[in-house]
Amino acid sequence: MPSFTPKSVLVVDFSTVTTNPLNPLGLSLRRLIWQSLENAEQDDAIGSIILYGGPKNFSAGADLTEFSSLEKHSSTASTGFDQTFPLIELVGKIENFSKPIVAAISGNALGGGLEVALSCHYRVSTLNSQFGLPEVHVGVIPGAGGTQRLPRVVGVAKALEMILTGVPIDAKDAKKHRLIDYVVLSDESLLEVAQKYAEWAQLMPLADRRVGQQQIRESTQELQTIFEFAAKKLPPASMGGEGVRSALEAVKACSRPITDGSTVELQQFFKTLSGDQGKARRHGFFAIRKAQKPVGSPPKNHPLLQKDVSKVKVAVVGAGLMGSGICMVLLKAGFQVHLVDLYKASLDKGVAFLNGTIQSYVQRGKMTETKAQTLLDALRPSQRLEDLSSCSLVVEAVIEDMKIKKKIFVSLDKITPPSCILLSNTSTLDIDEMASSVSHSRRPLFAGWHFFSPAHVMKLVEIVLGDATSLETTCIMQQLTKRIGKIGVVVGNCDGFVGNRLLIPYGAETTLLLEEGVATVPAVDKAFLKFGIALGPFQMADLAGLDIGYNIRKQRGWVSSNGAPAKNKPSRYPDLADIIVSEYKRLGQKTGKGWYDYDESVGKGRKPLTSKEVDQLVQKYAKKGQRQFSEQEMIERVLFPLVNEGFKCLEEGIAKQPSDIDVIYLHGYGWPVYRGGPMWWADNEVGLMYLLKRLEDFSAQFPETPYYVPSELLNKCVTLGVTVEDYFNLGLFQGQVGIRSKL
Ligand SMILES: NC(=O)c1ccc[n+]([C@@H]2O[C@H](COP(=O)([O-])OP(=O)(O)OC[C@H]3O[C@@H](n4cnc5c(N)ncnc54)[C@H](O)[C@@H]3O)[C@@H](O)[C@H]2O)c1
User: Fold this and answer.
1) Whether the predicted model's global pTM rises above the 0.95 cut
2) Where in this chain does the record put each 3-hydroxyacyl-CoA dehydrogenase NAD binding domain (predicted)?
3) Which domains are seen in the chain, by residue range?
4) CA separation, residue 249 to residues 145, 267, 281, 408, 711 (Å)
5) Phi and psi dihedrals of 85, rounded to 5?
6) Which of 237, 253, 341, 567 could form a disulfide with 319 if both were Cys (CB 3.0 to 4.6 A apart)?
7) Which position among 95, 115, 516, 725 bears the catalytic label?
């Protein structure tokens, strides 16, 4: 057999042109690949090429910051667009290149990154790599052949699953579906394996390896079944389905020649790029980055921010619903966690929850046995605050009672080291009043850390700054919140902070709809579900527990308590919400009855069933002059004051910027992502002029209801004819108030 001496292999290393470890496919990276290919074409000594993104990522996709300039070119969709070295042309150049190209993938190959890999002739990867087309999450669809090449490689059904859910697959799955030719073994080097492939490929025919020139495997009949099935599962276009429906249309074109299919894909890409839902989704994506932007640099080598925190002690006081969830999060982040509860039964319940949750991670393959044991070893249950003497951080999560909380902080002030950060998970109570229970020198280390239920699942955390909270503590908490995998939004101190403060009119008005309108509980929920809110307001209240809101109203002095009159009760007030708790003991799903009935035999006791008793109560407490409300009126009466309260939070410096409020509602309250958050919705769907007019109408109708009085900021935006987002972006907001004066 004649011996073969391979020509040299050119390695194109993405990390040479980008400092971003995600290797976004911005201009510099596209140019690098493009020009490397041009040079390799000319150089006869080069026989094949490896595209390599470094050890951390191949490429996590397009550079989203370029999208706004792409939007301007949406009209050129049919002819391509004016972008330098456009990705769609780059992938064609790679696929049709005269010499073999191997993608050497370590880490993420997502979006445009996977589209580049799919156009290569061979793909090898490490075991820890992820492959996906997550574009629907940022309001677009793949636009560089992903919807055409992926079905040809993994089959149409699998490709649809990946494209419509946007969920990536791991290397094992990718190998199983032939997306990857080879997964390197633990003792192999990715680049050495890629080198062998690249040399061997010099001998092999290239035509067979050009994915775009291959046929899809499914018959016409099979395709029809797959597409019909997929279409049935998608949400309607009006309920957030625009992006996935466009993606489906693009995939449907995959049985056509690649150039035709890619044209359909590009048209659908631009449709989603310029569509309202796509813009709202991208706003939500960038809003998280804006919210998480560090307000400064945390001190170097702070124990909480060390790489290895396995020796760092932290604590949670209160092992109830929230405390045990927060404990889970801190254990997963690698800390040693003391879990303290005054009552043995509550402590045992919290520990049982942690055991059960950790075991379920193991059973679902999300955690190894060894890791699970490490977590359990790091858990220190206790009934004594004295055990917290060497903690770097303590989160208080006991019942919502100021007196009890203050008492705990008085003790913690004495027990914990002077550098220990003290936090409260209170939902509504005054952080400054709580901070007043610790010595002056400790107050800069005091803040709120408001998780959402269930704390180990929900992504959002409000970082609540008191008057004395220092910038250093804020920086530490921002970084720590990110490290534990949560989205931290810095907010100011007031009743309910941002999230629960905006919920005050929401809770009151939904119940008042029952008393003032001819509406049933399911009818009100239906209006909000149609709007796109994840759970109807009454379903959500039942899930959280009606006693929680009731106790908060008691703390506010809205409900008479222990014989004391309800001194602060607003004159227009939904009594029914208190009555069903105090008189009818309907506490929500946990007691089998709340605004709905629940029956163990139906949906494991979680399915809301219309309640005759509640229907009768609604009739009994109906106010005079009841009338029918349209669904639109329901939405306006409830959500317009919620947005108005958002404006007031901005005005008072409780929220730093409008997009922070959107992040809070998107990730803490089930606001529909395709409506971008309440402030985005007001700016872009409702229109501020209409919002102002309707608030004025409601305010005239209900002069005793302060949350309908339009905020000054809203008035200013309408007078200037700008959105509230622009008002802040243009620097028109000058008030150095609240947290804005500190950050
Ligand atoms: N439940 C929610 O949805 C939610 C969401 C966000 C924040 N929060 C806030 O979190 C806190 C806890 O709420 P929860 O729902 O977990 O309540 P919970 O009743 O489930 O748990 C409270 C725990 O505190 C313990 N406790 C009471 N007094 C104590 C003391 N002196 N020392 C130590 N432990 C004591 C109780 O035994 C109980 O285990 C409250 O401030 C609440 O407002 C609740």
Assistant:
1) no
2) 313-493
3) 8-274 (3.90.226.10), 303-492 (3.40.50.720), 499-620 (1.10.1040.10), 631-741 (1.10.1040.10)
4) 13, 10, 20, 59, 44
5) 45, 60
6) 341
7) 115
